[in-house]
Amino acid sequence: MQxxxxxxxxxxxxxxxxxxxxxxxxxNSLRARRRxxxxxxxxxxxxxxxxxxxxxxxxxxxxxxCQSQALAPAARFLQRQGELLFFYKPRGLNSVHLAGxxxxxxxxxxxxxxxxxxxxxxxxxxxxxxxxxxxxxxxxAAQTQFRAAEDAGLVEKKYxxxxxxxxxxxxxxxxxxxxxxxxxxKLQSAEAPWSRCTTFIPLAHFASGSALPxxxxxxxxxxxxxxxxxxxVIHKGARHQIRAHAAGLGYPLFGDTLYGGKxxxxxxxxxxxxxxxxxxxxxxxxxxxxxxxxRAFSHWLCExxxxxxxx
Length: 311
Fold this sequence. Notes:
3 domains; alpha+beta; Pseudouridine synthase; 16 strands; 4-stranded antiparallel sheet; 17% helix
């Protein structure tokens, strides 16, 4: 990890961190500097800080390149089906480039990853902390087709998530989402359109204090709380949809502190399958061992939507 530092001098005492950061990032806008701070890439005296932190004399401000620099090689091409291309995005890598960020993105890596050497268009985005397959298309016409299929409910996306608490049964979150100009998506009292609902299916329960099964390859010796491995189904998707809906049901993602989950180094959310008419792609997360999973898990993930569909 590389970093550059500055020591706060008298002229900058009492200034906000996001303002003073221009000394280290003169080419970055205020918005870009705030993104760096919110991503945990700016430290004050060795600790993460917030944008409004007031600086004191001799504070040490460090700008660190994010771990996504090292994670970029983990991104890879999965397969191509006609004009649809599928790529793997690891946790900790942005889907698209953020203005002012020095870090790589899946979007920027596409020319190198694509088998044709061309630059396909992403038709999906995953959160920085979410892993899994991401779809792209090779033409504008294919992009239009993909969006039309989403609008018609012909696209099904399956995720695997580790939820906090013991989800007792299959349930659907129907709360509308307010994503405008918000770091945290807000739930509304109105009901969302069917395409923006999330279905949660409990696949396995882990009681607090019990040993985790060997097919769940997490760096936890025992579960710190009750946990549920859940399958999540969406069709169109909105920003933080699964994370916000899970929290709204009272079962936030474990480790997702933004939505009330217990503090941990990360959360576990992975897009594992995408179904389109005559097209499908599967991608298991690195925190599960597919060969050791109960058969019911594989059956759920691989099961195609029942309704007949035409593109």
